[in-house]
Q: What sequence folds into this?
């Protein structure tokens, strides 16, 4: 075969003169126009976010709601514990006060609130020791700690008067200072006072034995009405 008779191959397929066929006629989607640089950057960014999105899973999922629920539960527990503690403390306090009142009120003994003559023997004034004080006695320059005090007639100037006395039984053990204070206060509250108390500024004062004087046989609790102004009272405050 003579190669010179064969026409040479074209360098590329011919394009001129070929008919243009719409892609829709063959069910082929039309080609999108080339994207700009900004669109390409946005598409790449969205693709990166989709590929690297963090989806909470396991213990991290719902952390916000779980933390809020945990805080409410902790607050409720703290409030509940505070209420329970307050109720327990109140019950213990009421119980202790009730026991103190019961023990103080149930102590056997004799309470004197009414004067039974004679009081301190006449003539007055005279010096007397606390163990010899009688209910209704009035005292000049009164000192509850003094070993002796001057007893005077109640219609003369004085600063204190014995208005209640409680006697413990001889066989009782020393109850302690706090119990004696409480019992002496009961004696003051039980004292019967007369209208003369309205004429003066007066206060209550208690006196009770120490452990030493209790051991020596002192079983008396005294309640006095005293005047802070000194010897300015000139009448008995008892009925």
A:
């Amino acid at each position: 075969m003579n190669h010179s008779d064969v026409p040479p191959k074209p360098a590329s397929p011919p394009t001129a003169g070929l008919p243009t066929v719409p892609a829709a006629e063959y069910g082929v989607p039309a080609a999108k126009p080339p994207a700009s640089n900004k669109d390409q950057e946005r598409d790449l960014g969205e693709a990166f976010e989709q590929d690297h999105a963090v989806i909470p899973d396991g213990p991290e999922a719902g952390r916000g709601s779980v933390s809020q629920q945990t805080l409410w539960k902790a607050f409720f527990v703290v409030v509940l514990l505070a209420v329970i503690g307050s109720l327990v403390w109140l019950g213990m306090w009421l119980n202790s006060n009730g026991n103190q009142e019961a023990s103080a009120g149930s102590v056997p003994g004799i309470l004197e609130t009414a004067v039974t003559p004679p009081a301190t023997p006449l003539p007055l004034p005279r010096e007397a020791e606390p163990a010899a004080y009688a209910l209704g006695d009035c005292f000049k320059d009164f000192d509850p700690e003094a070993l002796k005090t001057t007893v005077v007639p109640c219609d003369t100037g004085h600063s204190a008067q014995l208005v209640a006395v409680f006697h413990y039984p001889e066989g009782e053990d020393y109850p302690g200072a706090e119990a004696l204070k409480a019992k002496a206060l009961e004696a003051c509250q039980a004292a019967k006072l007369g209208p003369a108390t309205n004429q003066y500024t007066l206060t209550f004062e208690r006196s009770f034995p120490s452990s030493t004087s209790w051991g020596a046989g002192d079983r008396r609790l005294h309640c006095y009405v005293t005047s802070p102004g000194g010897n300015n009272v000139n009448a008995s405050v008892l009925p």
Notes: The chain has a mean pLDDT of 76. The beta strands are 110-112, 126-128, 138-140, 149-152, 160-167, 203-207, 220-226. The radius of gyration is 53 Å. The chain is about 35% helix and 15% strand.
